[in-house]
Amino acid sequence: MGLGDGLPSSVRVELKNGWGPRSDGYRLNGVGYVSGAGRSYQTAFMSRSHDGYAYGQTTVNRLCRIVFDALDQPLR
Questions:
Q1: DSSP alpha helices (H): ranges in the chain?
Q2: How does pLDDT run across 18-64, given as a tens digit for each residue?
Q3: 3-state SS, residue 52
Q4: Are strands 39-49 and 12-22 parallel, antiparallel or unpaired?
């Protein structure tokens, strides 16, 4: 779960994730460093999923992939 799921195997990911159920939904969070494929960045996320861990995991993984792909373009 988290920053490296779905990224190319050539990319190095160092991360610390945390997750757990709460009375108002499942919490997922993570912080990490991603490098490779022309990118080098740090990122962190905090989320709450009312629909459980699997839904939260899918959402976080997709968000991390969006960030990775967006950083392929030079910042202006």
A1: 53-70
A2: 889 988 888 989 899 999 998 999 999 888 888 888 888 888 888 88
A3: coil
A4: unpaired
